[in-house]
Hints:
By secondary structure, this protein is mainly alpha-helical. The protein has a domain at 1-51. It is 45% helix and 0% strand. The termini are far apart.
Amino acid sequence: MSQTLELPDRIYEALTAAARDNGLTAAEWLALHLHVEEPDRERPLPELTAGLTGVIDSTETQSTHQTPFSTALAEKFRKQGLRIP
Length: 85
């Protein structure tokens, strides 16, 4: 079932721009941000990962500064008998 939604032009333009920037349709962008899934449509992995090649530079050295999250994670691993080299 389809519905019509009337939006002010500036809202519609912002919506379509945000969707386009993420490689999505306006409906897909809304569904994603409203946490609504389309149960009858699974997107193939190549479609989901399109545009991500080269996003992460694995040649950069990792940051080694401590954060509360990394400290908590290290403690959890330690309790499980795991060591981080």
